[in-house]
Amino acid sequence: xxxxxxxxxxxxxxxxxxxxxxxxxxxxxxxxxxxxxxxxxxxxxxxxxxxxxxxxxxxxxxxxxxxxxxxxxxxxxxxxxxxxxxxxxxxxxxxxxxxxxxxxxxxxxxxxxxxxxxxxxxxxxxxxxxxxxxxxxxxxxxxxxxxxxxxxxxxxxxxxxxxxxxxxxxxxxxxxxxxxxxxxxxxxxxxxxxxxxxxxxxxxxxxxxxxxxxxxxxxxxxxxxxxxxxxxxxxxxxxxxxxxxxxxxxxxxxxxxxx
Length: 259
Known about the structure:
Blueprint: H1 3-24, E1 32-33, E2 36-37, H2 40-62, H3 68-89, H4 95-121, H5 133-152, E3 164-165, E4 168-169, H6 172-194, H7 199-221, H8 230-253
């Protein structure tokens, strides 16, 4: 079996596992999304969403489509962020749990980034002739991930999880309304990037400006005791600004191709 098809089978099995999460999971085995273990409705939404995503990824790998590469890059970035955040938010494991955690991390990162390496090595990216399209579509999938995160905020609300809007953490109805609006906007942004629509450039510039303003205002408006450790804050700031501004810059570079 070709390595790409072996990875396709692996991700197909992961897709099946995610589809089963809402049925088989309990409070200790629910879907882990951006470092937090989910339950009930958020677990159902995330499990089905990732089941669909991984099914798409597995099928693209099996058929050796160019679209598999941005899917793989986005998934590998997600796995890396998820493991990093989960490690920070959980008590330090001991004994067998520590060994299992280390082996799981090696397997998860190795599988996610290994698939990307195999795709690059096999020349899958050369099938895509349009300059920058693979990277643009990787950004699109990351914004789809952010849309999912915002969609879950009204369900998973705690004092630390509410939507932060222009530097202020929301709660109650305001949190629900703003989170759902931004989820819709980011979903529209992701789709317009993937399909290379002119709307993507307008949304991208606006969102990049908003992210920077939100981070600056949060520094002045955050509640007492909300300071995050530097090991968490710095990667978050770099990734938030890098993804939002990087996507806008890339869209501007290829603006002639947008329709």
